[in-house]
Structure formats: structure tokens, C-alpha cells
Amino acid sequence: MHPRLAADHDGLPLLLESVRQHAAEVLGQVAERDVVPAAPVPEPDPLSAEGVGARAALEEFIACWEPVLSASAGPRYLGFVTGGTTPAALAGDWMTATWDLNAFSSLDGAGQSLERETIAWLRSLFGLSDEHHGTFVSGATMSNTVGLAVAREWLGEQLGVSPAEHGAAELGAVQVLSGSAHSSVPKALSMLGLGRRALIPVPTLPGREAVDVSALEQALREAEPDGPCVVVANAGTVNTADFDDLRAIAALRETYGFWLHVDAAFGAFAALSPEHAHLVDGLDLADSICVDLHKWLNVPYDSAVQFTRRPDLQTAVFQNAAAYLGPLGDTPDLAHLTPENSHRLRALAAWFTLRAYGRDGHREITERCVRCARALGTAIDSMPGLRLLAPVRLNVVCFTLADNPTADRLAALTERLADEVFLTPTVLDGVPALRAAFSNWRTTEADTRRVAASLRAALAAL
Question: What pLDDT was estimated at residue 104?
Fold first, then answer.
């Protein structure tokens, strides 16, 4: 054994204790450190031949790289839609790395069983029936890709062909209809051989990101002569957390043939709040669903889940034939359900946080984030120099400068805010804007007041 590896093996308990102590210090300070540090990124070093050992590597990481890392685990990182890691999820993630299971085969099946238990809990959390079969994947992009891959096979089934066997060209031109599709949808269509141009934008309701159901019906009527199509509905758009009328869209299947995929990356968590559960009414009617867990479930990156009513089509796409893998059977191994053969036991972090805090704990996180978003929206609405671009429907606040809202002026504003809060830029209806997304388990009303005060101060200096 290499001498440094042997030394680290012998000193592993002390090494892990050092990591534990430092991790606790980091998490104890994350709420007060600069959200986006201004320190320059270190120049890259060449790889050494002999190495330095784990303790020296830890010390070098602390000295060189930690000062430039953003506090994305903290309560005022409001960019993108980024959760943190609950204490239980952190413990679960550490145990995931400790056991280092590749949970892909029934030949060593305990990890798969744990994942299936976790999937059942998530189904219950989101109000889904047992007809939905789920699998963990790496994030919303992969979840949307898997759902649309199953949709692609369904299109083939309607036409009497199998894209998985003979290629996507067997389908001819495909139409994917959506009002406000997330950028991961055209990316998925590109990877699946359907092409970005398969995505057909459908008009949205006036002043909304929600699809106009009448316009969608017209688009379906026009598409009908060309064969079945796919509809991508949204349960929580990234700009304004807007929701399509899922039940009304699903009802259109009685007349038109289409696969209904719902992108509910963070919006699915509205089901936890009695006040907002109506937003996801009809989610269970979808043929496939995307939910991103490293957002509002607050588990570590990278973790998401995909659900579908057609696991048979899913295995038709992703089945993996190898002598060391068992047959598909009634309960296919995870190796047959996603693009990955290497299947990290991501479910364990979700298992830990769901077991630790239950439905009530995660409902409290969801409802507190919504209160924080409303409070910030109210503050912005009363703040001279800023204006809301949309109502605060759930956990996203979309706003801009009241006068001359250029991308450059907004960038200057966010630069002045960087030590206190991180916001991401966007464009809504042609207007450059900023958006704050609340999904971190640590964020409180006090953080919201602090963000509002920082906005006032930055405006005064702009």
C-alpha cells in the first residue's frame, strides 16, 4: 500500500474527527459569511507525484479554496432554486459515502429496497397514487430527460414502432407543446434525438407564465393530423412560480392523444401546504413527473426523482443487457430504469430527512419559505426604486428597477448585494429582472428583513 494511503488508513478516526470539527465550524458560520466572496480564485497547481496526505489536503483546501466558495448552504443564497442540507440529510449523505453502495442490482439488493421505501414516502408526500413508479436521478435535467425518453417510447407505441430499438427517426417529426418550458426541456429533446425545434411554444395567459388551456387545445387540434404529441406542463415556473391548470390539461386527453409530462421540480412541494395544495391539483394525472429534491427537500446535490405510470416503457428505453445483470422481471433493477449504471445511494439522504422530520417538518420548511417570499415581495412593493413584475404565488419573488431596468444596472445592484444576498438575473416579458427563490431550510423572517435592508442600502448607492 502506498505509504501516505497506509498512514491515512491507520489515522482515519482522527482524520474524520478533524473533518467533523471543521464541518461543524463551517456550518456554524455559514449564515454570517459573505454569500458570494470577492476573493480571487487560486491559480491551479500541477498534480504532485508523491501527494501530501489527507490532513495536509484538508488544510490546503481550507486555506486556498474555502475563502472563495459561495455560502450556497446558507439562508440568504436566493439564486436559482437552491436548498441547503438539513442536519439529517447531511448525516445521511455522510453515511452514503461511508457505505459507498452502487444500488443498481438485485444481486446486492438492500440499497434498492431502501430507495423503493423512500420513493413510497415521496409519493405520499406529493399526493401521488401507487400507479406512479419512481427512481432517483441526479437532478431536474435528468428527471425531465428520463420522463421525455419514456414519452418518446410512448409516441412509438402509438405509431407501432420502437424508437429505443430502431431510433428516433422512426417517429418522424415530433411536436412537444408547452407554455413556459424550462431550459432543460429543449436540452433533453436535443439529447433524445427529437431536436430542440420539436418544442412548440403555446401562448400563455395574459400577464402569466401559465399556459392558456384554450390555446393549448387549439394547438392540439392543429397537431392531431400529424399524430400523437407530448405536452409539458409546468408546476412552478422558475421566473414567477406560476402553475398550469393540470386538471384542465389532463382532461384534454379525452379528446386528443398526448403524453402529459409535468415539470414540478420545486412546485410539487406546494402539496405540503394546505393553503397552496390546489396549485398541484391534478398532478397525479400526469404520465410522467419531474421533482428536484436538492431544491425544497433540502438534501445535498445531486438528487432528484422521476415518476411515471409506464415503467414498462421506461425499461424498454433503459434496459441494460449484460451477463452479470438479472432479467427484468416484475420489479426491474435500477440499472434498467435510468441512463446510469452507477447509481449512488442518493435515496439515503432523502430517507434520513424524511424519517427525521416527517411530513410536518417539511411542511413547516415549505410554509416558512413561502412566508419569507411574501414578506420580501411586500417590502419590494413598498420600496421606491423597485417594482414587482409578478405576484408572489409561492416561493419566488421576481422584481426589477422602477426606472431604466437595464441588465447592466441590475448587475451593478447585485454586485453591491453580493456579501449579503445572492440573486439571479432573468428576463420576464422582455424586461430584465432579478429573482429571489426561497427554498433553504435555514432561511427565516429575520433573513428576509436583512435582505430587504440590503436592497434599500444598495439602491441608495446605485
Answer: 87
Q: Report the candidate in 122, 436, 444 with the shortest Cα–Cα distance to residue 268.
A: 122
- In this predicted structure, the answer to whether residue 133 has a pLDDT above a threshold of 90 is yes
pLDDT at 96 (0 to 100): 97
Query: Once rounded to an integer, what is the mean pLDDT over residues 197-224?
Result: 97
Q: What is the pLDDT of residue 354?
A: 98
The CA-based dihedral angle spanning residues 384, 387, 392, 398, taken in that order and rounded to the nearest 10 degrees? -120
Number of neighbours of residue 163 by Cβ within 10 angstroms? 24
**Among 255, 184, 262, CA closest to 220:** 255
DSSP secondary structure, 50-67, as one string: S---HHHHHHHIIIIIGG
Is the peptide bond preceding residue 292 cis, with omega within 30 degrees of 0? no
Does 323 score more than 80 pLDDT?
A: no
Determine the Cα–Cα distance for residues 176 and 230; give it in Å rounded to an integer: 5
DSSP readout, 111-175?
Answer: HHHHHHHHHHHHHHHHT--TT-EEEEESSHHHHHHHHHHHHHHHHHHHHT--HHHH-GGGG-S--
Percent of the chain scoring above 70 in pLDDT: 100
- Host H or E run for residue 25: helix 12-29
DSSP string over 387-404:
EESS---SSEEEEEESS-
Residues in the chain: 462
Cα–Cα distance for residue pair 78/72, rounded to 1 Å: 8
DSSP string, 169-225: GGG-S--EEESS--THHHHHHHHTTS-GGGEEE-PBPTT-SSB-HHHHHHHHHHHGG
- DSSP string across 90-114: HHHHHHHHHH--B---GGG-HHHHH
pTM beyond 0.85, yes or no: yes
CATH 3.40.640.10: does it fit domain 91-352? yes
Residue type, 393: R
pLDDT in tens, 164-188: 999 999 999 999 999 999 999 999 9
CB-CB contact of 304 with 142 (8 Å): yes
From 20, 121, 23, select the one nearest 352 (Cα to Cα): 121
**Averaged pLDDT score across all residues of the chain:** 96
| Helix H or strand E segment including 372 | helix 347-381
